[in-house]
Design brief:
Layout: E1 2-6, E2 18-32, E3 47-48, E4 54-57, H1 61-70, E5 71-72, E6 81-84, H2 87-95, E7 100-104, H3 105-109, E8 117-120, E9 127-135, H4 141-153
Parallel strand pairs: 3-5, 4-6, 4-7
Antiparallel strand pairs: 1-9, 2-7, 2-8, 2-9
């Protein structure tokens, strides 16, 4: 059993041994400097290549690709999404004027920094989902109780 967060709507693909159970979906917000183009908007409705790059905490190529698919504009999007070691690195990149941070709404509530503003990202696909991964055939009663409680709590 494991827990992971991702923007991917199908985090395990064609893996027939694993099952991904969504537990919680957290809408994404942007962390940005007050002078950024997006700061004028109450809710950001589109990510534009020209306003990046975009920074997200984690080391997931799947999440980076999912974010890349949200970015409008022509050209190569591989250099627009940067996965960094943690939330502090995302906020540091924003404060340094390197780009825009992407994080979950709940993360944003707990990490206010002077000089950074947050704007909701109003895209239906822009939700960081926490999944519980387990083997499909696992009949463990302990695991079944854990899954039941996890789904009830969130």
């Amino acid at each position: 059993m494991g827990l992971a967060c991702t923007l991917a709507s199908d985090p395990i693909g064609a893996d027939l041994e694993l099952q991904a159970l969504p537990l919680h979906a957290d809408p994404m917000v942007l962390a940005l400097l007050p002078e950024h183009l997006f700061a004028e908007q109450g809710t950001v409705r589109s990510l534009i290549a020209a306003t990046g790059p975009y920074f997200i905490a984690g080391e997931s190529e799947t999440t980076a690709a999912a974010i890349g698919s949200l970015i409008e504009g022509d050209g190569e999007k591989d250099d627009l999404v940067h996965c960094v070691a943690g939330l502090d690195m995302v906020l540091t990149a924003v404060l340094a004027g390197r780009g825009v941070g992407l994080l979950g709404e709940e993360q944003a509530r707990s990490c206010h920094r002077e000089g950074i503003e947050f704007r909701p990202l109003g895209l239906a696909k822009a939700k960081m989902t926490t999944y519980l991964f387990k083997r499909r055939e696992d009949a463990s009663p302990v695991l079944a109780r854990f899954v039941e409680r996890a789904q009830r709590i969130v």
